[in-house]
Structures are given as C-alpha cells and as structure tokens.
Amino acid sequence: MTGRRDFLSQPAPENYVAGLGRGATGFTTRSDLGPAREGPSEDQIKEALAKRAAQLGFGDAAGVKKKDDENDNDDARYQDPDNEVGLFAGGVYDKDDDEADRIYREIDEKMDKRRRARREAREQAEQEEYERKNPKIQQQFADLKRGLESITEEEWAALPEVGDLTGKNRRSKEARRQRFYAVPDSVLAAAGSAGELGTTVADDGGASNGASNGASSTQDGTMTNFAKIGQARDKVLQVRLDQASQNGTNTTSGSASSVDPKGYLTSLAKSQLPNSAAQVGDINRVRELLDSVTKTNPTTGPGWVAAARLEEFAGKIVAARNIIARGCEHCPKSEDVWLENIRMNDQRNAKIIAAKAIQKNNRSVRLWVEAMKLEDDVRSKKRVIRHALDHIPESEALWKEAVNLEEDPDDARLLLAKATELIPLSVDLWLALAHLENPENAQKVLNKARKHCPTSYEIWIAAARLQEQLGQGEKVNVMKRAAQVLVKEAAMPKRDEWIAEAEKCEQGGAIITCGAIIRETLGYGLDEDDDRKDTWLEDARGSINRGMYETARAIYAYTLRVFPTSKTVWLAAADLERSHGSKEDLWQVLEKAVNAVPRSEVLWMMLAKEKWQAGEVDNARRVLARAFQQNPNNEDIWLAAVKLEAENGQTEQARGLLKTARQEAPTDRVWMKSVAFERQLNDLDAALDLAQQALNLFPANAKLWMMKGQIYEDMGKLLQAREAYATGVKAVPGSVPLWLLYSRLEEKLGQLPKARSVLDRARFAVPKSAELWCESIRLERRAQNTKQAESLMERALRDVPKPEQGVLWSEKIWHLTARPQRKPRALEAIKEVDNDPALLVAVGRIFWGERRLEKAQNWFEKALVRDLDLGDSWAWYYKFLLEHGTVEKREEVISKCVSVEPRHGEVWQSIAKDPKNAGKGTEEILKLVTAELR
C-alpha cells in the first residue's frame, strides 16, 4: 500500500480550472434556477494556457501569439476613417466639396419632407390605435374628473383625508400582526364542525321551513339561500356583459376596469373621515416642519404662506393672521405674502394692509388691482387705478381695468387713446380703441396699429372685418396684403391658427372675411409633393364637426381651385350642401361638378336624383340626356334613366330604354335589370325568355341563375326550378345564395335528405361560410333533430373564422340554449366575437325579454353604430321602439334609416327584393321587415 492520497482527495493544482483543456468555460443557468458560479477570468485562462504549453514543450507560445496580436493591430482595417492614407492622403476639402455636401443634404431634406406627411399620418394612426386599445388611467377617469365641477364646497369639505402613511404607523401595524395568541380548543372544534350538514331533524320544524324557502340549514343554525346565490350569479353575468360592451374586449380577465360615475361620488360621501388623532398628529408634524423652514429661511415667502394656510386649515385663524403678518415683516417685497395677508383679513383691515403693501411695492400691478377690488364704489376704484397708473403708466393690465370701470364710451375712448400712446405695442388696446371709434376713425386707428405692430395678424383681421362692415369686403382684399406683410416679417401663423381665426369670424358673422382668410392662407407652407388634397379635406371635416360650415365651404372652394377635376372633393362639397345647405346651393355645386368632371357618371346621377326628388322630372330627364352625351353607352346612366321612367309610371318608355341599353351597353347588369323589370310587371314569360338569353351570354352570373329559378317558382314549376338551381350551382359553385335557394326548394318539396345533401355539397364548395352552416343547423332544427343541430353548431364554431361567427352565436343563443343560460352564453359569445352586429342585437333582445329596457336600447344602438347598412338591426330596433319608445324616437329612427338606406340583412333583402315590393321606399320596407321579424 502506498501512502499516496486518493486522486479525488488531493488538493487541486495551482490555477486549476475544471474542464479548461476540453474548452469548457463558466455558464449561467435559467433565471428561475439562479446563476452558476462565475467562469475563470481572462488572466487565469492565459496563465493556464501558458502553463499547458510549457508542459507540452511548445515554448513561449502565448508570448508569440501575443506579439502576433499586437502586430495585427496595425492592420489597415482598424485605421481611423478620418485619418486618410494611400490614395486619399493629402486631400484638401475645398468649396466644391462643400457645395456637393450641401446639395446632398438638401436632397435628403427634400426626400424626408416628402415622406414626412405620410409617415406622421401613419405614426399618428398607430398611436391612436394603441391609445384606444390601451387607455391610460387618467383617460378612464376623465369623465369623472369633469363631473367634479358640480361639487359644492361643503361636499369638498366632507371628502376624507388620507390616512397615516408614515413608517411609524406601518411598523406598529406589523408589530400587532406578529402577536400570536393560543386559540382555545372550543373555537377549533366549532370551526371544524361549521361546514358539516346535520343528520337530525329539529322538533320545531325549522328544517322544513328552511327547505320551503329555498335554503339549506346547517348544524350550527346557518342558512344557505340558493335563490340568492342564483340572483348574485345573474348580477355578476350582467356586470360582465356591461364591461364587455364598454371596452369592446375581454375585460373579465382583469385587463381593464370601469367605474360607475353615478355611484362614485356617493361612495366618496359615505367614506369615513380619518382618525382625528392621526389628523392632529399630521398637522403637528407639518407645523414643526414649516416652523423650521421659516426660521431657517425667514426671507422665503412661500414658507410663510404655507405656514399660515396650515393654521387656517386647522381652524386657528388668529394664529394664521399673526404668522402671515410676521411674514410681511420678513418679506416686504413678496407680493404673494401681502396678497395672502389681505385675503385672510376682513375688508377694513385688508385696506390698511394693502396700503402698507403698496408703500413697500408701489410698482406691483397685482397689489394695485387687489386694492382696487377692496373698494366698494366705482369712484373709489377709479381713484385707486389712477394712482396706480401714476406709478406704473406702462402697465397694460391697469389700463384695461381703468377702461372697464368707465361707463361712458367717450371717456373710455380717451383712456384708450392715452394708453396706446404710452403702450404702442399692445394689440389689445389698439383693437379696443378701434372698436369704440366710428368706422372712419377706426380705419385710421388700425392703420396706426399696423405701423406699430407689423407682426400682429389680429390687427389685419380686424381691418378686414371693418372693410366688410363698410360693404367693401369684396372690393378690398385686406387679407392678401396681410399675408404678404406677415411673410415678409417672418410672423406668418400656422394653417391651423388661420382656420381657427376664420371660424371666429364665422361666429361673429363676418362670412366674407372668413372666406378671405381661407383663400389667402390655406396653401401656405404646403408644397405640391405634400398630400395637400387629403390635408385640406381633413381640415374641412374638422370644421364641419365643429359646426363651422362656412369655413368648410371656403376650404372646399379653395381645394377645388387647386384640384378642379377631383371627384372626391366635389362629392364632399355636395355632401356638405346636402346636409347643411339649401337645395339651390346643392344644385349649383353639382352643376359646377358635372361641368368640371363630365366623365363622372356618379355626379350626373346625383344631380338627376336631386332634381327628381324635388319634383322636377323633366329637368331630371334633361340632366340624364346631357349625361348620355358626355358618357355614351354608360350602363349606370342607362339604368338611372330606366328607374326614372319606371318610378314615374312610364312603363313602355322604360322598357324601350332597357331594350336600347341591351343593344348599346350589353352588360350582365343591364340584362339583370331587364329581367327584374319584366318580373316586377308580372310578365313571367318575357322575364324567363330574357333570363335564358342572358345566361347564354353570361353563364357564370349567379344572380341570373337565381332569377331563373325564382321565376319558375313564381310560375309553380318547381321541378324546372330545381333543374335551374342544380345547373346554376355547377356553373357557379362559389355562390352561397344560390346554394341556399337550392336547399330551401328541396325542403319545400319535402326532400329533406336531398336538402341535407345539397348543403353538404355547398359546405364542401364554400367551406368557411357561416351562412351555409347556419342554414344546415336551421334545417335540422326545423326537422326537430335538436341533437344533430347542436353537433353541427359545434363543428361550425370550430371551422368558421371567429370574425364571421356572429350569426352562428345568435342562432345558438336563441334556439339551442335554455332561457336561463342565454346571458352566460352571450357573455361567452362576446369574448369570442368582438362587436358583431347580429350578436349585439341578440344581447339586446335578451335584455328586452328581461324588461331591462334602457340596457336593451343601448345594445340595439351599439349594433346600429357597428354596421349602419344592416337592415335587420334597424328593424329590430324599430320593433322595440313600437312597444317601449316614444313617437319622437320612432320618427327619428325612421328618418335616419331613410337617410342611410340599408341594403343588407337576411330578412331585409328577402323583403326588399321581392317583386311585390318594387317601388316601395325605405320606410315602407322597414315596416314590412319589422312585421316579419319573429
């Protein structure tokens, strides 16, 4: 046996690093497991490598490598780029290089300016979207803050104070929590048996009584009321539905919160005031702190003010007056201290204090104004202000106070004349003087004002309004001269400021000045490369939203001078006149539009429609005749002419126009309108013949196949209709309405398995269609096969994309869910489908059934806001208002529906496209759909 130690028990060699020969280094594990030990340093690694090289006989390998590394530092790659060598050595940076750099810099600035508007618009949209999805806390409470304006001083005084947040109170609470006491065995035994159910029946019949009331009795006498538990559960579900509707996202997970604005102030009023002892302790601590401040820095005015207000808050008004008086002695030049002293005293003492304050600070405008306010009669106030002007004649605020005290306009004019002499740079004084003068003298005053204040745009605007008042606003273009001078003086305001001034002029009735401001300043600062049209359209929309329609008209007029052939701008201008103008103004705008853009059939049809709705049918025909000359063979104009004649009872003329249109503009739409027109006239043979001719020309048009099958159904030839639908789905397999008509015809014929087969083929052709899945579910439900309907519903919710599942969830809530479970099912649907109009209507119907009318109305209105073009939503809301709404509200809904003219909706389209209802207006269709809803 050798005395050598075991290998593992031997001490490690000097500078030993485990695994270094294999290339191992230190490592760090995952953060949740904690870091491993730190690896060897760089010096340790070099020392170990050198020792290893010496053992293997490589000599001073590390030293050689170190020298090589030092030589590598001279590589040209690591040269300073500013220290040019070789071909670039000895270069001189001359004027040509400077000129080249300047040109490149201007090019970069130009390119950046061109992209700036789009980039800023994109960034602003992204920022708004992010702020909308992630509202700040202050935004969520903004409405509550605005509501605090109505709180009285007594209610403010009743608000609770903050509690003691000092470390002493916190430590004492922690000490109390750390005290433990032994719990008696009786308490433990009672707690252990508290949740056990009793196995005996009381002699007095208490158990039976509890059971009859919907409660369960435990052994210790406590009652479990299951009815109240159910009511609480319903209330929680309702709150979650409200949160989901307010935030538009899943708020039940805790990602957002809401506050009841009605109960918030009530909860504040019911809050208990903090402990009076703790409040006194806080006041004492703050008093000591402020006492230290006033002793350390006695010439600091805010310290004295804070100390006095603390005593006032504590109810010691005498002490507060004494403190602030001492503050006046130590800080005789502090306006704030003197003003605080005046505020804390009564009027008689305040006058004496104000006199002392003015003796110490005879050039303080605030003190003079406060002394003036302490006087009771106007004469004394004038005397104080005049003394103030003797000491501070250059104070604009004092002159304004003096003018406001004058009741006679002549005396005020004299004061303003003197004030403008002493303060010639005050724009407000010049404008006030011009306002008091007659028009001739006001013009002279404004001319003097422009000389003294050449950079003031307010004076130029006042001059323009004066010219408008004199009736020369159209002749004298003051704003053109104003823009030139302000640009020369480098005092040109921004476009937004000019628009704001134009809106002020509109409010004041200066319409000509408003238009002149927009005309001369709207294009300032915008280049041709900027998105000027979009910018100006946005400015006009902003003015419309603020109710400034004349400003918006001026903006549109200027935009049309720059872009006279822009259809977008003409449509926007016409929409403004339609909504907020007169009928004649709208006609005038549309006449200018069709002359400027004669190739736009939309503008021609708008003009013809407006003439027709005004009862001028002949003028509407003339407009369409002019449109034909400018746009020959345009199908939209042809169809507009046909509709005009058909609506006015000119059947033969309309048929002749359609025949000519089929020859001149033989499009599939013209053929469809021809078939529909004959079908409306109940000439089914002619309609069928036209449909067959159209299908020979356009075999891939699904609507023509649908019309052919519907004509056969109207004629009672169901087998021929089946053949038409079957041929149509082969020609156009992607048409969902065609598949639906085919399956419903098979169901009508009593061929239920055939109808299922048709819908299965349809879902194979259009796999993610919510309408096809919903029709399959309804088919099984009508066949009393509820289990199969539920199975299909589960498959549909898996296969159909979530944004399109609204109609499926509505079907599931109303027909595949028990009544008590509808509300939780609606909450689940809102989590899956965000603000689908069909789902919102379903939730509104749930609240309607529970007689929660206000909430039901809110949900119906949310559905309309989500999609105004969905006619079924309008019909459900109108049906609700027929039972629970006022006459005014129903008329409002009808007028809005007529203005929107909805075109979609399952029931709406079936009623609106029925040939029996041809020619009926939106109001009649709305009432028919309302009567059809079940």
From TrEMBL:
Domain PRP1 splicing factor N-terminal: 12-168
One cellular component term from this protein's GO annotations in UniProt: U4/U6 x U5 tri-snRNP complex
Any one biological process term the GO annotation gives: spliceosomal tri-snRNP complex assembly
Primary location group: nucleus
Domain of life assignment: Eukaryota
Residue spans of biased composition, Low complexity class: 202-217
Basic and acidic residues composition bias: residue spans: 63-80, 120-134
Keyword set, alphabetical order: mRNA processing, mRNA splicing, Nucleus, Repeat, TPR repeat
Renumbered residue ranges of the record's region Disordered: 1-44, 57-93, 108-138, 201-222
Compartment(s) of residence: Nucleus
InterPro entries (alphabetical): HAT, PRP1_N, Syf1-like, TPR-like_helical_dom_sf, TPR_rpt
Residue ranges the record marks as coiled coil: none
TPR repeats (start-end): 702-735
Record's subunit section: Associated with the spliceosome.
Full protein name: Uu.00g106690.m01.CDS01
